[in-house]
Amino acid sequence: MLLGALTDSLRKLKESLDFPHLNADNIDYLFPQEPWLIQVDGGFFCVLRRPNFQMRGDSLAYDGCSILQRLEHNGVILVGPYVAGRNNFQVGGAFQTLKLSGGSVCSTYLDCASMTVQKEVRHSELDAVDSFVRHYGEFEFMGNPSISARSLFPKSRRVEIPGDQFSSRLETEFIWGYTLGERVVRGEISGATLCTIVQDLIAQLEQSLWRSGPERLQRSYFEVVSRRFWRLLTNPIFAELWNNGAIINGECFPGIAHLLSAAQQRWPVLASLSGHGAHGDLILEDIVISLTDERKWNVKLVDPNPQNVSWFIDFSKLMMSAMLRYELIYCDLYDCCLSADCHPLEVIYEFDEATNADCLKELEDYLIRTVGLTPIGSSLQSSAELLRVQACLNMLALPVFHYIEHNQLQRSVMFSVVPMRELYFLLMA
């Protein structure tokens, strides 16, 4: 009923405005099961619907209620999902900014007047290298107009905040599209299309960013995981996972400290990677795609981490999305039962069956087939196995952000036990 009313409203809008991109034939194509943003005579209209899952705490929903608002000063309309039998619409006045998700230790919001994304580093309890230094490097990278593969990134500029040497802000043009992670999670993209987009993106990166500067040593994720997990050991759950392991889905697994030591001995090459440049955090959630007027995919990359310089890290971040289901954990699309009072610790989890698992498996298989075939990757022996291991290390570096910065214990446990389990199987193979 809501979509029908919305369709009628937009058709009437089309009749009253010069709106060449919307008509009765393509409205279902433009508004299938997702939000979309469109431009009308210099004003922007946003139809926002997320019917399949509740966004995280920093979403556009408050106390389980959706938002239905119009921002008169710039023509933005926000429409939330309708739940049958619940009066869950709130109507309010115009507001100037919308808080967005993501950003690690950043506050991120959309400035509705300028339609730019404002990303500002906030003070953090984390080490400076994982907070201010990391994002300062990101802002400097994004604000550099001469970076290699500039066309793959949105236009951005870095702004210093007067009087605060530990804060800065990045202003980025708003990208009218959705991440590959969103499309996969909501089942809106096929495995074949996903692999085609990733294949084209890898080809562009291989000819640009991955060869963009002098060769540098890639930081070791063995060290990164150890340093970050140390910050969690005051919590008995993470201390148990680190020192003694856990029973995960009915099987016993050793502690993370043991797994890291064994992995470094078996795959020492992962501690001495090098590269010329990389996105550094190439998960599906950082790849924004939109359709051009010719219905071709337009791809933009967001949230780079220039602390990583190896192309192999980019490959392994994609593998983390595909093999370890990063986006499903990020969006809390799982069931997890944690028995914290037991010794050893017991964790039972399963992913939401409604998610697009087949699509992610196709991407995983594609990455395994491809990683050793690219000219830049041909020097790595057993590269498929190494790719899986590095993906596990990548995810083991994440719990500290979600526990300390976002206060999400269960999600942090998932970011620990899922790679623990996979890394153990790789060691036993």
Question: Would you kindly provide a written description of the structure presented here, covering whatever features stand out?
Answer:
This protein is 36% helix and 19% strand. The protein folds into 3 domains: 2-94, no CATH class; 106-173; 178-428, Aminoglycoside 3'-phosphotransferase, Chain: A, domain 2, CATH 3.90.1200. The strands form 6 sheets. Strands 6-7-8-10-9 form a 5-stranded antiparallel beta sheet, with helices on one face. Strands 14-13-19-18 form a 4-stranded mixed beta sheet, covered by helices on one side. It has a 3-stranded mixed beta sheet with strand order 4-3-5, with no helix packed on it. The protein has 429 residues and is α+β, with helices and mostly antiparallel strands.
Topology:
Blueprint: H1 2-16, H2 27-30, E1 36-40, E2 43-47, E3 66-71, E4 76-79, E5 89-91, E6 97-99, E7 106-111, E8 116-121, H3 132-142, E9 156-160, E10 168-173, E11 178-179, H4 180-185, H5 191-206, E12 216-217, H6 221-230, H7 236-243, E13 246-248, E14 251-253, H8 256-266, E15 274-275, E16 287-291, E17 297-301, H9 311-323, H10 326-330, E18 334-339, E19 346-351, H11 357-370, H12 383-396, H13 399-405, H14 409-428
